[in-house]
Amino acid sequence: MKITIKFMLLILLISFLLIFVGCNKSKVVPADSSQQDFSSSPQVNIDAFKDQGRVAFVWNGLLYVLDGGKGALAKLSDAGQARWPKWSPDGQWLAYIRYSDAQEKRGVLCVVKPDGSQSYEVDGLPLLVDTNGITWLPASDEFIVSPGGYVLPEEQDLYRKLYVVRPGETPRKIDAQAGCLSPDGKIIAYGDILPDSDNKQYPGMRSDALYVVPIEGGESVQLYAAKGDGMINGARWWPDAKGLLFRMAVQHSASIMADGMELYSMPLTGGEPRLLAKSLIYPEWLSWSPDGSTLLAVKGAGREIWRNKSLVACDVKTGESVDLPRRPNTVSLDPDWSPDGKHIAYVEAAEEEDLAEAGEVSAWQQTRTLWVADAGGKNARQVSEAGTGISRPLWSRDGAHIIYLKENSIWLIDINGGSPVKLVGPFPNAPDSQGYYGYVSWSNILALY
């Protein structure tokens, strides 16, 4: 009897130790845990995401990664409000910003391994950072921080500098002008007031120019001067780093910019810029083909996204733009290229003249459907199994599935048939589903690798 009691006590002790160790080991949910109760943590379907890549998302302010290769869910932050996750090119790191309060505009820059094995708070930056200005260097664990946003006059010298960050090390300041880093990590592009510009104190009347400068220092080269107009500093590089995209800010007018800006392309060799399209400035509405030869964009003036919006394929080197087919009385939104460059995915919705009430916007949201077409827009077909209320379709790793947003959740569907599967959600605090003039960005809480 004594042996039996001792044996039972030993079993209880071992069980307790196993539970204790399990609660304090790496924050990874194994693949067979998809049926567990996630009422206080992310509601996920790990098995359905097998071999489809990695998706980083924010749940209740904390950062998680669903890894389809490892079949695991990793929790990467423990406190504060995580926002704006951004993958390194090789998928080995995630950079994000942690805010102490959800209403703050700037926070602490952090970098972490996707399995949570290494995590660093970036020390040594002069001030907190905002949502923009993080650019990973190609095939590297380094990234460039270009602090931006509104700053006080006494902060200008601190925020108009670049910093090279390597996880776990003190950032290195670069003397080059803050701006957009080229894909090869060698050149900075930026917009600035012309030195001899008249009326510098009146933004609506000043002249701006587009410049490039080597990241390690040197003399700036002026590529183009916009007499009487301006360019927003958010220039974009061609994937091969041989040219730039930029937008003209007519008279520096915020109201005019809200209704769309002209998108231009220009090679580094100079010459006259080539007009590609007039469009809204949403970054999710530009998608490069995998080979970098073609830019797919949503074109159309007007700040309401339910009117006058269609897809255009642009050759940035020649300036040629080809309108993709659009069905009557519809708009086309949220384009994305397939990994092999042979197909595109996008959202089609009913075209409306004016939606004034919240209920009308909600009803319009339910007309949004998922479509797939050849690269040139031909042979378009609706993926009807996905249903309605679709936004932000993204191709998964195998090119046969699409990840998309619906009903405040992340879904996955096989484009060749089959029922959609909910991967994550519903989110407890996702962005407003109606947005401003219909536009909603999930980039602050979602990033796919």
From TrEMBL:
* A Pfam family recorded for this sequence: PD40
The record's annotation in PROSITE patterns points to: PROKAR_LIPOPROTEIN
InterPro entries, per database record: 6-blade_b-propeller_TolB-like (IPR011042), WD40 (IPR011659)
Database matches in PANTHER family:
PROTEIN TOLB, PROTEIN TOLB HOMOLOG
Homology family = Belongs to the TolB family.
Q: What is this protein called?
A: Uncharacterized protein
Q: Which organism encodes this protein?
A: Pelotomaculum isophthalicicum JI
